[in-house]
Fold Meiotically up-regulated gene 157 (Mug157) protein.
Amino acid sequence: MDKYLPTGNDFVSLPRINERTGGIEDITFLYMAAKGLIDIRGSESAPLIQPYVHLNGDCAISPACLAWTRLDDWLPQSTAQLGSLELKTLYIPPIDERGFAIQMTVHNTSESAKDVVIGLNGCWASSWHCVNEDKPLSGKATCFRSGWNSSLIFEYHAGFPMFAFAPMADAQTDSSFTCSDDGSITYDLFHHCTIAADGTASVVFYWGLGFEEVAAATSAKEMLRQTFDVELTKTRTWLQERRVTFNGDAKLTQLYNTNLFFCMFFSTGITLDTEELVLVTSRSPRYYVSAAYWDRDSLLWSFPAILDADPKRAKEMLSYVFGRQRRNFGIHSRYIDGTVLEPGFELDELVAPLLALERYINKTDDKSILNDSDIAQGISLILNRLRQHEAASCRLYDTFLQPTDDEHVYPYITYDNVLVWKALKDLAQLAPQYAHLEKTADEIKDAIMTHCVQKDSAGKPYFGWSIDLNGSHDVYDEPPGSLQLLPFFDFCSPTDEIYRNTVAMIRSPEYKYSFANSPINEIGCPHAPHPWILSLANSLLCGRVEHCRAILEKISMDNGIACESVDEVTGYCTTGEAFATCAGFLCHSIREALL
């Protein structure tokens, strides 16, 4: 199975840089009018963009000899050598630019000059619309020569120009292209040069993205004018200002930072057509529910890590949430424009905006945000909607869907009600107009302790997963909303007897999804019956530090990036590749527990 080294910036994602070949298999970007993601793809036999070097007409670099590192834990760079030529290829999506660049540097180690061709070729085979499911677009792909230079323009029409992308280089290049009857376009973009003995040649290919040809070409031209060194320095400075170093642990440092940047650039992004910041599960089509919005995923998982790294970006996230997404708070999933994608009420999603808001204020002490009309209206809407789900006999709140988005067994879930308690208790401390919620929070805790605490056959108390207020409950746990986190939310002490009994039950070998006797002994659930990375993050947050360190040493996940679940023996990804919001929650838990 191929492995990938994703990278990206706010505007463009490169989700599939193939580790074996160095080829860029696709480019994705967010599009508000399409309510999701557009994916420009190569073919099965040829990637969208393939770097190459030719010596005397023959391919001088074999994909099998590529060795990879990440500059500042985010920018992929490969090195390769065949005979007397050394090639270094660096992929950089510059900060604040609508595009990306590929720098190819060839060093001639021989004692004689070499005639070399440095280039890119590839195939634009198809274009796709991605929101959970991937569906091909039915418009027309075109290619023509740019009026802005002698290079190429690739443009897509659906009655009018919908998007375009275009290359420019910082050296003299030649190009060719062919439009096939099946709608695919193949191209070649190349630079001829003679490299002296012990000499070096370098070419930077800039790719701009835009609504149509002028926007795409000038996006490339802007990077060209700024120069590669300026763009690289700006981008590296941005990354280094947000990187975290774990002293003496290079592997953990790389894992943390790569997942942090993957979270920042794949769980958020700026739309091409309206230039709005939006939040999504993942900008990679490799994730099985890509490019849609979940309150829980964005606000409970990715938001804490982004707040740790960039409070300004976190505030922009809240503006989007309490703006476009406000009217459908608590609904299962939505499109990026705020309209409903999948209906179904989820209690954890309803209170997630409150928990993120409180976390932001506690981190920044910026209480002025409460004066924003969107924020005030959002709080009021959540409190009103919460009352609609209150039990008639006590202060417990029902949900239709569990944190996995699967249907509940019983309507009152302990974990979800702890989130409600936490949200109202903290909100009561933020401003006088919410002080009355302190009493409501106390009543919620009393209701949880009265109705959600059960006893086993030996009389030991524990928290049931869900109840129906008629005497029924289940023993269960879900990594997306685990009972392990109750001390993390300050609901109880880690030494509390009820809590300890609960954790012992769900981590015991007798519990079907504990994986207690496996090398990767973390909790799963029927939604994905393998150990979850979210469960590993939960364990970090509830103090199982050495246990988690040992697992972090073993797991590969999705080539070093967080996924939904991993094989309980090998630690390789089993479900949910390129899970951007999970990457954020893993980072936050590592930072809280190990920094």
About this structure: Residues 347-364 form the longest helix (18 residues). The first strand starts at residue 7 and ends at 8. Residues 250-593 form a domain with the Glycosyltransferase fold (CATH 1.50.10.10). The chain has 13 helices and 30 strands.
